[in-house]
Write a structure and sequence with these properties.
With about 350 residues, the chain is of the alpha/beta class. It is built from twelve helices and 18 strands. It has two domains: about 180 residues, Quinone Oxidoreductase, Chain A, domain 1; about 130 residues, Rossmann fold (3-Layer(aba) Sandwich). The strands form four sheets. Strands 3, 5, 6, 9, 10, 17 and 18 form a seven-stranded mixed sheet that branches. A six-stranded parallel sheet has the order 13-12-11-14-15-16, with helices on both faces. It is globular, with a radius of gyration of 20 Å. The structure holds zinc ion (2 copies). One zinc ion (ZN) binds next to helix 2. The site of one zinc ion has 9 residues, from helix 2.
């Protein structure tokens, strides 16, 4: 089979690899039909995620946003899984015995293995995985089914934020994750304001029923958001950028006793006025991946909103051009919303 192998930091190449063996007990063989590429792929490729593990993750087949079809099932898989079924993959496997696992938060497991980061992912002809990570999904296009993974991050963010109907929610960043958070907040009945540097990205948010604002100066954005939400400020603010200015704006704009939710990944540092945490008694909440219940909900969100989510897919490449696809995505951040790589 063909595989796009990230051989070391900054180097991906197409190679021929042997097919995986017949699946063992509880294992499922999946043919990836569509693999979404996202910011965490850029971080891995450029060494920000991988070097933390001492570079031991190379060579690695990337691709954690995977939809495909089941081509073989090992013994002992749950009955709902069938041959030729369309599926989306929950990329996470937790250790089950660390502190986060022991308190029911496997998505923050200290030892988790993510498909496409710690174990080989979707950018190959066949992928063997545990049956617990395989979720049947119905989508007209497998590229849309692959969006279950970014949607699952938004489900987790909405759960962490505990969004209530009619609450005012500000989302900073209108990339794929910000759009998915907007969708989840709208589905939960919230009124949403989405902020982004690029006006063009805000159109999709407006179609989801959100108000929008183009990012200008941090203080102006904070003032606008507080006016928009009413005098107390928004009870929920979510950063989906990882940009220090946006993170600071999130903390500054959110209402006292509100929830500030960090979803965007970054290795940057941000300075915050310590008093904003004590005086406002904020809940400052992080989001890491999601658990299997949230992934199951993400599958249903995708099934309900296929046409809307399809509009996030801006570019497609065949598997054979996976290295070019990643290079293209990383060098055209303003043009690219979601790059999807199609399996052959
Ligand atoms: Zn992703
Ligand atoms: Zn664990």
């Amino acid at each position: 089979m063909r595989a796009a192998v990230t051989e070391r930091v900054g180097a991906m190449a197409m190679t021929e690899r042997p097919d995986p063996p017949t699946p063992g007990p509880g294992q499922v063989l999946v043919h990836p039909e569509a693999v979404g590429i996202c910011g965490s792929d850029y971080h891995f490729f450029s060494g920000e995620l991988s070097e933390a593990a001492g570079g031991s993750q190379f060579p690695r087949v990337q691709g954690h946003e995977v939809a495909g079809t089941i081509t073989a099932l090992g013994p002992g898989c749950r009955a709902e899984l069938e041959l030729d079924q369309q599926v989306a993959l929950w990329p996470l496997r937790a250790c089950g015995h660390c502190y986060p696992c022991s308190v029911g938060r496997p998505n923050a497991c200290d030892n988790f293995e993510l498909i496409g980061i710690h174990v080989d992912g979707g950018l190959q002809g066949l992928l063997s995985t545990a049956q617990e990570q395989v979720f049947p999904i119905r989508a007209e296009d497998s590229a849309v089914a692959a969006l279950a993974e970014p949607v699952s991050i938004a489900v987790r963010a909405a759960d962490r934020a505990a969004i209530e109907p009619d609450e005012r929610v500000v989302v900073l960043g209108a990339g794929p994750i910000g759009q998915c958070v907007c969708l989840l907040a709208r589905e939960r009945g919230a009124k949403v304001l989405v902020v982004d540097l690029q006006e063009g990205r805000l159109e999709l948010s407006r179609e989801m029923g959100a108000d929008t604002l183009v990012w200008t100066e941090r203080d102006d954005v904070v003032a606008f958001a507080r006016r928009w939400a009413g005098p107390a400020g928004p009870p929920v603010a979510v950063d989906a950028t990882g940009a220090p200015g946006a993170v600071r704006a999130m903390v500054d704009m959110v209402a006292s006793a509100g929830r500030a939710v960090q979803v965007g990944m970054s290795t940057d540092e941000v300075s915050l006025r310590i008093g904003s945490l004590t005086e406002k008694e904020l809940d400052l909440l992080g989001v890491s991946c999601c658990d299997s219940d949230a992934f199951a909900e993400a599958v249903r969100v995708v099934e309900r909103n296929g046409a809307l989510l399809a509009r996030m897919i801006s570019h497609e490449f065949p598997l054979e051009q996976a290295p070019e696809a990643l290079r293209f995505a990383m060098s055209n951040p303003t043009e690219v919303m979601k790059v999807v790589i199609r399996g052959e």
